Amino acid sequence: MKEMRSGPNAVAMSTTFPELFDRFSAALLPAETPDATILRFRSIARAIRLDSHGHAEFDPKAEQLAFVCVGSAKLVARASGGREQVVSFHFAGELACVPGGALHAYSIEALTPCELLAFPVGEFLDLARSEPAILSEVCDRVMVALHRASEKSVALGRKTAQERVCSFLVGMTERIGVRQGNGFAMRLPMSRRDIADALGLTNETISRQFAELRMSGIIETSGRSLVTVPDIGSLRDLGGYMQLPERNAA
Amino acid sequence: MKEMRSGPNAVAMSTTFPELFDRFSAALLPAETPDATILRFRSIARAIRLDSHGHAEFDPKAEQLAFVCVGSAKLVARASGGREQVVSFHFAGELACVPGGALHAYSIEALTPCELLAFPVGEFLDLARSEPAILSEVCDRVMVALHRASEKSVALGRKTAQERVCSFLVGMTERIGVRQGNGFAMRLPMSRRDIADALGLTNETISRQFAELRMSGIIETSGRSLVTVPDIGSLRDLGGYMQLPERNAA
DNA sequence: CGTACTTTTGATCGAAGTCAACTACGGTGG
DNA sequence: CCACCGTAGTTGACTTCGATCAAAAGTACG
Fold first, then answer.
1. CATH annotation of A2-150
2. What is the pLDDT of residues B166-209, one digit of tens each?
3. Across the interface, do B83 and A152 touch by the CB < 8 Å criterion?
4. Could you give phi then psi for residue B165, rounded to 5 degrees?
5. Which end of chain A is more exposed for a tag (fewer CB within 10 A), N or C?
6. What is a single Pfam family found in this protein's UniProt entry (chains A, B) (predicted)?
């Protein structure tokens, strides 16, 4: 029971536990799941409510699955010397895997007010085993996370600052962008610093890259968080991606 | 059937398909799996035999699961300008996830002569759904891969060259090292260049870091591939890891 | 035993980091 | 509603770590 500790900004909020759990079960538990199983998932779920910038630390030995019910969050790893790496960003409806027994310290931090359900992986998978459809859904989601991590390692390992920023923006338009003519508009919930920590850069470098992209008309910004991309193609061209030979009709 | 294309070094080798498949099924299919299911796995498995440095390209649209039956391999992503990132190394008995529909081009390349079984993910998971134990095992392995990727992104995003090399060596001792007194010895199947491509550095930098570690007595080397680590603790201290507060007895 | 490739070592360069100062956004209270 | 203030973001000057370019030395292969 002591395995989760919430940070200073952890705060009571509106949504009730049943409401949170409903969002989880709507997303991950198939309709035909027996009530008994649902109840057992309920009994291992732990609600975490975070104010903006609030953070949740977990027992470093116990791996967790965290379902984001509302809001958005980042999964952060800490290395020596206070260095932070944002491993992934997560939006409502997504599942985050918080490693246990790792050599870095992981935590989940809220980008916006945020409500999560955390499950110890072991017990979660034990239950899921009784319902292949759940296991299959979890497996799919973990694979998506792995693919994102693979793509990201290319950026972190081999790309320039500009390419990293462009790939980041391409990825974000796909996840939270709303179509706008030829391009996209989006409200980024994370700070320049968060972006820097995700891309292995500094906030100054992010700022400079945003400035350049603004100059060349690739993006427009308004306020701290609103970004519009008039033409997603030119942004993608700057992402350092492999030019795929496939060019046939969909 | 045209989804897999083997490179110039793909070559015929000793192990027969039934032998390869047995290794796969011993690792991933539980004893109680019905013969019909085993047969269906067999029918979607595709054997890939690679000479040292041979490579296998896959249909970029179709995600694959590749089980390494014998030998060792690297999962490589290619970005524009011929840049390569080694996403992960894999040894016999491990499962590699080759992303499909990605913005980079992925391939598997042999470090040593190597034999794989490749499965299209969709069909694989369809079959696995009938046997929760298989799904559960795959899920576990994919999570391990995700954790490694998370830890690696800390290295790529926030660590110095020396810290990256030390974390790499720490990870390798855990995977292929053989205990030797206080430390470990191992034969690294990958070249300096492979290590560089995995750590987001150059082969020159790897060479220089190895030289420094040799100087300070942290490692000893013999020939190109033999590395011994007299004291794993001092190597770990240089890895830039979080100094975990946990210091209690096991 | 020779030869081709990998590794090592050295010298120089450049992209991003660091340090510092200034600006502007957006939330709070008057 | 507007003025104020703290934080986040921007911009500039300089530094640094690892990349790049080049050449020598070492391995392991035929």
1. 2.60.120.10
2. 999 999 999 999 999 889 999 999 999 999 999 999 999 999 99
3. no
4. -65, -45
5. C
6. cNMP_binding
